[in-house]
Design a protein that fits this description.
Length: 695
């Protein structure tokens, strides 16, 4: 018995210790492959990434540069999140055809809707170009010399690059510039909207449930890739045909259970896992609190106005969601860092690093790094907070300040000549129009009164009664005439006069000082990474996310957020009905879905207990950009669609703790159920390959 207990502990430790990390798909052979297989995977490294044969990677597309998507049929059917396709769904919507509200389903190819500007990019192959990129880069170079050497090397790499005419490429630094990889890409520009559930399914729970478990959101939408007659990328044309992919993911009808292996394959945007403790402290104790305070002040005003007025509720919906998304994430990040004692753990790690330096006689070489971090972050703190607060107030929350910020840029553009001025003016006119599309001066004035005291001493809200900028017509009048006339008018405007000195201070003092120290810190971080991998080679190092294709893997697993509470890893349709609030903005449930629930008309999509699973949790290490990424089972089938993380675990961007970091996925059976039973789009199901790997 005791041996058994000991063994269990050992196994549990092994499993949790072997998780976390976002790995480069071309380098899985060896360590990752073995780890994945120990977690239950039956896939080989070549199944996932292969240059000569089709592999899983051929089904994974970077969706519009910010999200992930995957091909799920031989006819180029593409799956991503509802919130990733939100802009496209919205742009096809009108009061008569409100696809956000009612959903959209193309019943044949002719009904599929083109989307200007939308693209999907695949990775053809990945090459390690580290030695070519770092040739002649030595320790004694200054950061500037180092950069120019790298630029020269880069040109050589590009010159020698072999690729087809229609293909593109990217070269990106990894491990803080200690390694470089080249990606040959294929980009498709004719991507059409095929289907989207109503927001009451695709965004069910909205802000209240955002970043939170238990979750019941069907966060998916469907597109299709079109190619030319030779199956090559092409811009939109009526003559284009559905793309035949090199690989598409079969969809499993057997789903998952707690303990099952999953891998998430996608394009994570940005993480910072190798920060020193002092940086982590600055983020959680200084930056996050001041950013949270500014957004909280703004949200209080916006929320109250949205509740009181339907027109404002619609106008501010997406703005509010954007402000609230990061606000809520930062609160969770702080919570998680505190709960897991991450700063102390980092400090402990750093003292081990220092000990190792001593033992290996490398104090001379690397002993300055940690003290330098301390000193640099101390000088960085004030300017870092100041810059963050400026961005929060002038760019993220207050719209009048955003307009003045852009207008000062216009005035500054004249330094580059009349032509530059005219060009900036043109784009500014569009920006003003787009801001005013959903603008309410009363709300914005309230936001100003709430956030400005958190940035400046002078907070004169009377500018709202005098400025021309709160009305689109008068704002555009300011921009009529030549540069002289425009600048004369601008410099008489009350809001412009108020904001200009602060914007100039930003450009002349805040930003240059911030960049100067930030560059020094980045250089030091590069050396720190080199040192870590050299001095403590036994540690687990994966490169920080940088919007390139990565594999992350783990298990379906619940978690314990607080004492005596354990969260099960799967939610069911019963939970949707439990949360149902008739007519509610966040928790309404479409009648048709309630009917299907009542009649238990689940077809082949129920689990073995006769229930429809909605979402599930895994220990996959994900971040923003992984939205829309496929969750793949042990044999390479699609079982889920990644769309979020749990609140206590959002700290995984700077510290991954396998105890509480979980990603949230939609169960593919719910997706299929909605497509088939709710939307009646069975023809889409027929395109897919449905499998029963567990039978
Ligand atoms: N939190 C997720 C992400 O970071 C989902 C955001 C969209 N959903 C929402 N309710 N705003 O993007
Ligand atoms: N919702 C995020 C996205 O849009 C993914 C969630 C996360 O940050 O992990 O990419």
């Amino acid at each position: 018995m005791r041996i058994f207990k000991f063994l269990m502990l050992f196994i549990a430790f092994q499993v949790s210790a072997q998780q976390g990390g976002m790995w480069i798909p071309s380098l899985l052979e060896g360590m990752n492959e073995a780890e994945m297989q120990s977690l239950g995977s039956k896939l080989t490294a070549q199944d996932i990434y292969d240059v000569n044969n089709s592999s899983l990677k051929d089904a994974i597309g970077h969706f519009n540069g910010g999200c992930t998507s995957e091909v799920i049929s031989p006819k180029g059917l593409l799956l991503t999140n509802h919130h990733c396709g939100f802009g496209q769904i919205q742009s096809h919507s009108s009061l008569e055809n409100d696809y956000l509200k009612g959903g959209f389903w193309a019943m044949n190819l002719e009904e599929e809707l083109p989307n200007e500007g939308l693209y999907v990019e695949f990775i053809v192959r990945i090459e390690d170009v580290t030695s070519a990129m770092l040739e002649g880069v030595t320790d004694n170079l200054t950061p500037k010399e180092r950069q120019s050497k790298i630029d020269i090397n880069r040109n050589k790499v590009v010159k020698n690059l072999k690729k087809e005419a229609w293909q593109g490429f990217k070269i990106k630094p990894f491990y803080k510039g200690n390694q470089y990889y080249l990606f040959v890409t294929e980009r498709f520009d004719d991507i059409r909207l095929v289907g989207a559930p109503p927001s009451s399914i695709g965004k069910f729970g909205s802000d209240t449930d955002n970043w939170v478990w238990p979750r019941h959101t069907g966060d998916f939408s469907i597109f299709r890739i079109y190619a030319d007659k030779n199956n090559r990328p092409a811009s939109y044309s009526e003559d284009n045909i559905p793309y035949t992919p090199k690989h598409f993911l079969p969809v499993s009808l057997d789903g998952i259970e707690e303990g099952d292996f999953t891998m998430v394959f996608g394009f994570p945007g940005r993480t910072n896992e190798y920060l020193p403790a002092v940086a982590m402290e600055q983020i959680t104790k200084k930056l996050n609190p001041s950013n949270i305070a500014i957004r909280e002040a703004a949200l209080e005003v916006i929320d109250a106005n949205m509740k009181a007025d339907d027109q404002i509720r619609i106008q501010y919906a997406s703005k509010q969601a954007r402000i609230a998304n990061s606000w809520k994430k930062w609160i969770g990040e702080n919570l998680g860092i505190e709960k897991s004692d991450a700063v102390a753990i980092k400090q402990q790690f750093e003292s081990e690093f220092t000990k190792a330096l001593k033992a290996q006689d490398k104090e001379q070489k690397y002993g300055n790094i940690l003290p330098d971090f301390e000193q640099k972050y101390a000088t960085f703190e004030a300017i870092n907070i100041k810059r963050n607060n400026f961005v929060e107030v002038f760019i993220r929350t207050n719209e009048l300040m955003l307009m003045t910020f852009r207008l000062v840029q216009l005035e500054k553009s004249l330094d580059k000549g009349e032509e530059a001025f005219e060009k900036t003016k043109k784009s500014l006119i569009n920006q003003l129009k787009s801001i005013h599309k959903n603008y309410n001066a009363t709300v914005d004035k309230g936001v100003f009164e709430a956030v400005m005291p958190l940035y400046a001493d002078n907070t004169d809200a009377s500018i709202y009664n005098k400025t021309a900028l709160t009305n689109l017509d008068t704002a555009l009048k300011l921009l009529e005439g030549d540069s002289k006339q425009v600048l004369k008018k601008l410099n008489k405007d009350a809001a412009y006069k108020y904001a200009k000195p602060m914007v100039l201070e930003f450009y002349e003092n805040i930003e240059p000082e911030f960049q100067r120290i930030n560059n020094e810190i980045n250089t030091l971080q590069t050396t720190y990474m080199t040192a870590l991998m050299e001095v403590m080679p036994e540690e687990r190092y994966f490169p920080d996310a940088n919007s390139t294709l990565r594999v992350t893997y783990g298990k379906v697993n619940g978690y314990a957020p607080r004492d005596a509470i354990y969260y099960n890893p799967v939610t069911y349709l019963d939970g949707v009905i439990e949360k149902y609030v008739p007519g509610d903005y966040e928790f309404d449930v479409p009648e048709k879905l309630r009917e299907l629930y009542n009649s238990k008309d689940y077809g082949q999509y129920a689990d073995k207990n006769g229930k429809i699973p909605i979402c599930f949790l895994g220990t996959n290490h994900t971040t923003g950009g992984n939205s829309g990424s496929p969750a793949i089972d042990a044999e390479g089938n699609l079982v889920g669609l990644n769309f979020d993380r749990v609140w206590e675990g959002t700290m995984s961007d700077i510290y991954y703790d396998p105890e509480i970091c979980r990603n949230i996925m939609v169960d593919l059976r719910y997706v299929l159920f909605i497509i088939d039973k709710y939307a009646g789009a069975k023809h889409l199901i027929d395109e897919m390959t449905l499998v029963h790997p567990k039978k």
